[in-house]
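Data card: per-record layout.
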Amino acid sequence: MTFRRILVHASTYTAALNNLCTVFEQIAKANLRLNPAKCSLFRRQTSFQEHVVSERGVSTDPAKVEAVEKWPSPTSSAEVRSFLGLASYYNRRVC
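The structure for this 95-residue chain is written out next.
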């Protein structure tokens, strides 16, 4: 099994350390390994599943908003459905 990302949240530095210890213990118990080169600790903001997660909450990735704004005008019903699927996905998560 491959994980792309594990997010560990805390409101204080001490809580973050405690939460990380708990997560690391569970990873070790499951005989899983982490690649240190791919680990980022104590970040205030990160991209996760096409969103930006920060201390202010979850917001849409600006690159995705730009992609919607620059989407070419659809010329077929399939292209309209494709665009509406993308736009409604973000509408549910942003509004």
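Known properties of this structure: The two ends are 34 Å apart (CA to CA). Strands lie at 45-48, 51-54, 57-60.

See the next section for split statistics.
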